[in-house]
Write a structure and sequence with these properties.
The chain is an alpha+beta fold. Helix content is 17%, strand content 18%.
């Protein structure tokens, strides 16, 4: 299959699995959720399974994340917060790490 874009270094294209976040990247103000025009609050990585041979990543707003929580648990999805920290693995939810107020530099 011919690639749409040339690879100048002669390397093969990167497989899809390597493009998905291990620890997810931080979300930026310019990011938009996959499901609506709202800002995303989580990055969800749904593992590969029957019918979809590669994992899929989604950016979800708070409303759609809460509405989809049961389905995400059933699918064994990994969920990362806005900073890229893992907050849910499959069926196990981890509360976000407590972040105290930032120290003010004198």
């Amino acid at each position: 299959m011919k690639s749409w874009f040339a690879h100048h270094d002669g390397a093969d294209p990167v497989p899809l699995d390597d493009e998905l976040p291990g620890p997810a990247r931080r979300l930026f103000l310019a990011d938009r959720a996959c499901c609506c025009p709202a800002r995303p609050v989580v990055t969800v990585v749904i593992p590969a399974g029957r019918g979809h041979p590669h994992p899929a990543d989604l950016l979800l707003c708070g409303h759609h994340y809460r509405a989809s929580l049961a389905a995400l648990r059933a699918a064994g999805a990994n969920v990362y917060d806005q900073t890229g920290a893992l907050i849910m693995t499959g069926e196990t939810e981890r509360p976000p790490a407590h972040r105290g107020p930032a120290a003010v530099a004198a």
